[in-house]
Specification:
By secondary structure, this protein is an alpha+beta fold. It contains eleven helices and 21 strands. Helix 1 links the parallel strand 1 and strand 2. The longest helix is centred in the last third of the chain and has 17 residues.
Length: about 400
């Protein structure tokens, strides 16, 4: 009996994992990769260090599909399985506060061990192949077309990513292929991305980093919040807590023009603490200028902005300033509202949210519309938080799809 043939569309993290697993099951595997080489996006992850996964793996770290469905897939190939897999192909792994990295701290090392494993398993790689068509034939075979070339396989895995970082190959073409097979699409938005704000004063504080609590409001109610190091840019806000919120904000922006965000730059203070803080500073520094009075509260650029915002001048004596305005400066430190008008583009996003609905695939990630075709990675409507969760989904979904595709 001849071996099954499996075609994998996309040579990213999920695609390479799928190819490895299918080949280990005895299938003859071919990766169709549009770039000149596989794994380009891996080289960009974790600032070049490749955050492989996270010891605190949980379905709660993901969006898109129902938590129970995601949890079931993660149980099939969890973080311990991922560690064993990579150790088994020669990669040493180290942990930093739960985050997992290659011991070399080089993303290129992760790509290298995967490439070497593909080579040892006899997986063929067709580079420079932009797939533009897929069809399930009446005899069950899968026909894939790429330019003037055609390929026939017994099974296929679509793992060509979502919309994020198009220069690495993830340009949404996978959604077109899914549509050719009859699949629908959950609208996509950039996720783990910077937010652009309406206000023009951000240039004055660009480059400032500070601990903050950030809350996103919709209809006057908080819909999500995060705490961590906030970074100000010329156009708005960035940093890990902003990335974690950006998915929710992006979907809100699809429904309305602007999204209010409340920033608490004194996250360890309660509102009632502000009056006592003001009184103590008046006792200790009531004979100083306004600028001197607020020095030491937050970053100098932020304090200068808030002083200007309430209508005070840094050079005026505190004793000549209205107490109401002094209090208002501290109020801005505790609750500062800015207005988000957009996100940065997919080119700046680490991942895209949305994609092929998980309700349209089986537990093994096989298409319910076109049996014999499987999905893996970002093309599915599953996206995770920062911290290695999206690469873990790539490994998990690639494992499931690749192994199932090679079964008779």
């Amino acid at each position: 009996m001849k071996n099954l043939t499996v075609g994998v569309i996309g040579g990213g993290a999920a695609g390479m994992m799928a190819a490895v697993m299918a080949a280990r099951q005895g299938a003859r595997v071919t990766i169709l990769e549009r770039n000149d080489r596989v794994g380009k996006k891996i080289l960009m992850t974790g600032n070049g260090k490749c955050n492989l996964g996270n010891m605190e793996l949980s379905a709660q770290a993901y969006h898109g599909a129902e938590a129970d469905w995601i949890a079931g897939r993660l149980r099939a190939f969890d973080v311990d399985d991922m560690i064993r897999f990579f150790q088994g192909i020669g990669l040493l792994i180290k942990e930093k506060n739960g985050y997992l990295y290659p011991a070399s701290e080089q993303a290129s090392t992760v790509l290298d061990v995967l490439r070497f494993e593909l080579k040892s398993l006899g997986v063929s790689i067709v580079s420079g192949c932009r797939v533009d068509g897929i069809e399930r034939l009446s005899d069950g075979r899968i026909r894939i077309s790429g330019g003037r070339r055609e390929f026939w396989f017994d099974r296929a895995v679509i793992a060509c990513g979502g919309m994020a970082a198009a220069k690495t190959g993830s340009d949404g073409s996978g959604y077109v292929l899914a549509g050719q097979l009859g699949h629908s699409l959950v609208p996509t938005v950039p996720a783990l991305v910077q937010l652009r704000c309406k206000e023009e004063f951000f240039r004055a504080v660009a480059g400032v980093r500070t601990e903050a609590h950030i809350a996103v409001l919709s209809g006057g109610k908080c819909v999500t919040s995060e705490r961590g190091e906030l970074q100000f840019t010329e156009y708005g806000i960035s940093g890990i807590p902003v990335f974690q919120l950006s998915r929710t904000v992006a979907y809100l922006l699809r429904e309305q023009r602007e999204v209010p965000v409340h920033i608490r730059l004194l996250p360890d203070y309660q509102r009632e603490d502000l009056e006592l803080l003001l009184i103590n500073r008046l006792i200790l520094m009531g004979d100083r200028t306004v600028e001197e009075f607020f020095t030491g509260v937050l970053h100098k650029k932020l304090m200068q902005l808030f002083v200007k915002t309430v209508g005070l001048k840094g050079t005026q004596p505190v004793e000549q300033a209205e107490k109401r305005l002094l209090s208002k400066v501290l109020e801005l430190c505790w609750d500062w509202e800015v207005t988000v008008t957009g996100t940065n583009s997919y080119d700046s996003a680490q991942v895209s949210a949305g994609g092929v609905p998980c309700s349209e695939v089986t537990e093994d990630l096989e298409s319910k519309k076109a049996p014999g075709v499987f999905f893996a990675g970002e093309i599915l409507d599953v996206d995770g938080r920062c911290g290695g969760y999206n690469l873990q989904w790539a490994w998990t979904s690639g494992y499931l799809a690749g192994e199932a595709a090679a079964r008779r």
